[in-house]
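Bench notes, afternoon.
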Amino acid sequence: AALRYAPLAGVIIGGVGAAIYALCLWLGLGPLLAAALAVAAMLLTTGALHEDGLSDVADGFGGGRDRDHKLAIMADSRIGTYGTAALILCLLLRIAALVELHDVARVSIALIASASLSRAFMYTGMRLLP
């Protein structure tokens, strides 16, 4: 039942990032630093849960030789080379994408829409798929 509110949580998470981005620009910071701080704020808001999962999957598929070894790597709490590389690339791409938008309104829409729609699709998928 609570999963239906996941898109609303996305609006809040994206709103936090958008507010931090706007505040940084208002304070005179450049768009690169504003984007980095907005992404950092969203990571803090979610506890970096999705980034943890990304690093686990990257480590498992990058370093695992068979199914059991991949699962063992993914269950390990330590981060490896593939996980680190995936996280760095993911964060750099997020920040670069925000910098390329060049506008507070466009950044705000992108952050709120991506955070809420990704959670809406998760809810929809869980409802429709067996």
